[in-house]
Model the fold of this input.
Amino acid sequence: MNKSNTRRLQIILILCIALLALSIGLVSVGKQYKERVNQQASTESLLYLEESLLSFIANLTQIGYQSNLANAQYQEFAGAVANFPNLAGITNIWLINSQGTYLDINTANPHHGYLATYDDTDFASEPINISNTPLWASYFFGANDKAYDVFVKPETALSLTLAIPFISDEERRILAVDLDLSKWVTFAKPNQQLSIRFNEQLIWTNAGEPIATSIERSILNNPELVLRSAVEVDYWLYLLPIPLIALLVIVVYGIQKPITPSYNTRKLGHDTVEALDLLIVETDQQGVINWMSRGAFASLKTFNINEGDLLRKHLTNHPRIVSYIHSSLQGEKLTYQLDESGYSFRIKQQPRRDSNEQIIGLSFIIEDITAQIELENSLKHQQLHDKLTSLPNRQLFEQQLNHDIHRAKRRDTPVAILAIEINGLGDINKTFGHQMGDNALQHIAAALRQEIREEDMLSRFSSDEFLVICDDYQDPIELRAIANRVINRTTTEFTINHQSLTLSANIGIATYPRDSKDAGSLISNAIAAMRHARQSGRNTLDYFSTENAEIVQRKWQLEQSLTNATKAQSFELHYQPIFDINTSRCKGAEALIRWPASTLTPDQFIPMAEQSGLMHSIGSWVLETSLHQLQVWQNTHPNFQYISVNVSVAQLNESNFIETVNSIVQKYPFKAGSVVLELTESIMMSTNNDMMKKLNALTKMGFKIAIDDFGMGYSSLSYLKYLPIDMIKIDKSFLDGVPKVSSNVLICEAIIQMSRALNLRIVAEGIETPEQLTWLAEKGVSTAQGFFFAKALPADQFATFLPKTES
Ligand code: C2E
Ligand code: MG
Ligand code: MG
Done:
């Protein structure tokens, strides 16, 4: 038995003893009380009886002597009797003379209708001589000289007789009076039982045998004559312990209840049970439930367990838990989770021990943690899934891939990753807004999910990149089939908000164990293959190869350092002078970007900056720096005419290009016509309304527009007349070898003629020889730049070319 049970039993024992003592105390107090009442009542009764008898005797004695009963004749005796008090309480009156053989006997009870009327001596019959009876003899012949006596005549038992002697000189007579006791003993209290006994023989009682302890007192000092009294006053005393005992029973029951094994087989699922969320179960060593808390909850209906059940019976589907039970019976404490019928429970289980530390069973605390688990799962889901598409995110994808690679290692099977890049989402964002872009992304995510095998994981890896794990495929052809399905599906036109949209995809594939042995590099290899595919155009597929990966890797690194350079503004501007051929004077300069930290030329890094979206900020910096430089030079050298700034088509395509340029112009205003913006010929390939507006806006701001590298873009010359263009720059390649290379001479002549026809100024680029210069001068071209004059130079070195101020 454990400590708390022993303590409870001690309390119960103490309470029992205390209540017993209290009951005994109450009863004994009650008895004393009863004794006292009895004593008092007996004393009162006796005094009353004796008083009335004594006063009766006194009366009789007085009347008897007045009537000279010692010598009276019958008539005088009858006269005396008529004066006796309380005749109703008398049954017989005799006057016995001293001879004993003669006696006067009178039946003298007027209430019985026979007042004494005759003298027995008148009868001829043998007179009754009572002198021989011991009772009377003592009065007549003995030494009894008492003034009166009380006794019971043997012949008339059960009646009390008073005897009073009357003595004269010659006679000694006894007056004997039989008393009707029921008339005399009229003083009993309601609960008082009275009896009169003579020599232990009952001669009178008011209510049978006394039922309780009686008090006895001898009447008129006669030890043989006794009055007994008992008073019934104590019923309530015996009742007094009853409420106390009831209280004891309740208290004992209350304390005892929890330690008494209850085998109530009430089922779980009761209303109150459902309100609680803990179930406590205790079993014996065999696993039989011998107690369980009354509380449980709705989901515990699942167990449908009852007291008295064998717990293991319910766990046949859970061999793991049966083994836990076994461990706990060996003394182990365990906490574990049980999932059953869509509910989750946390079970804490430990052995129960008796006071000797012996294991006597198990106790379980079972807690419904379904809601908690659901919350955890939803948080976990949120944490591991992309909000927009609900697809697994990068973290979950990597977890799964690690797991799959592990398994593939064991089974010696392959794992492949498809990296999918969706192209065109950026355009949708720009054209229709981000909400539309999001909707398109959701659409494409759902579409891709349909195209890949159910067992494969599709994850959104970054904004427009998706990754797929193809686990345990049989044949690489399967991968190609999946990739083709993905491309087909992506390029299928779809409609959102009544807008028809199409996208394209590039896919890269890398496989374990061929391309990589770990998850991280397998993913980057697939992405490298995807980027390499991108270089081959849209809707292409590529497999990972080390060479490709290196190219992609290098490119990626370059992009990174370009990004850093843009942020750190670590570019420089050099200026190549532009000369007036006729005067040999420098009239302007072309600003050309330089990246001192890199060996890359602008031809190499500008396209990369365009691709990676860096061109807008680089271009802004170039324009701002150039305008600032122009201000400086024009202040010091008023004859310096203009600066030429290259603008990439990627910049022009930016929606806020005009605003950006405008804000720079506000900062560094310039004279109209003193800044030329050089656009490549490709501008004409994409001329639309929007582009025309932009070009017009630029000319309004005071810019002149030049077409750079003219002749390289194979564009229709006639197109030029529709654009607000001021000059063309003949590409260096056409001037190479002029005037010796006749084909170039012809092309250059054609360009010159056409420009004149369209009223466009001409600048010749890449002039390296005096022959070229002479030929141009002959053809009437007045402006040129090239290494013949100077290479592009830092601003301070360029200063030597600045036109001298004319004095
Ligand atoms: P571009 O605008 O046609 O610039 C002329 C290029 O020819 C410059 O090359 C210049 O150094 C080079 N060049 C000039 N004269 C001669 C010559 O006599 N012989 C030879 N062999 N080359 C000569 P650079 O600076 O390497 O620039 C290459 C291209 O990069 C530029 O062609 C332009 O398209 C682009 N670029 C340069 N800077 C910028 C810039 O700030 N913004 C933009 N958008 N593009 C730029
Ligand atoms: Mg240029
Ligand atoms: Mg050029």
Residues 398 and 520 are 8 Å apart (CA to CA).
